[in-house]
Amino acid sequence: MSESKVALKKSDVEKLKAACKEFNNEGGELINVLHKAQSIFGYLPAEVQEIVAEELNVPLAKVYGVVTFYSFFTMIPKGRNPISICTGTACYVRGADKVLDEFKRLLKIEVGETSADGEFSLNCLRCVGACGLAPVVLVGEKTYGRVSPDEVRDILKEYDYVVD
After folding, report:
1. At which positions is [2Fe-2S] cluster bound (predicted)?
2. Model's pTM, two decimal places?
3. CATH ID of 81-158, from 3.40.30.10, 1.10.443.10, 1.10.579.10, 3.40.630.30
4. Binding site for [2Fe-2S] cluster, residues?
């Protein structure tokens, strides 16, 4: 079974190497470098992890271990409009699960997946600290409060998503 390689833009690779230099190519700065790498590429595929390991002179297994340990890091590309549904206690009690189900139904994806067109990815969060607005949905940097399943379609339309 052959694994396909991710093609990285040369300009992004140069940005990553510059980021490593900003942190003096020190292995102790691995988490900071990975944050920077994820902001450059949007996610951390194996090819990016290999560059980080080489530049910081740390074992690839250590880089992979950090990437898989911290939930902030992802090895899966996110959609241009990442959707996060808060499933903390207040949001859950007020129907976040039904809101989540409606996003899954309309986008035809599961939690952790990205839509076929690359526009949306779907994730859950534990708490966004806006319990008075429960249930809360984040689309990118925009916050939607007191969301009902009936409003999911309208939220998607704001991002030019054509719902069947």
Report:
1. 86, 91, 127, 131
2. 0.69
3. 3.40.30.10
4. 86, 91, 127, 131
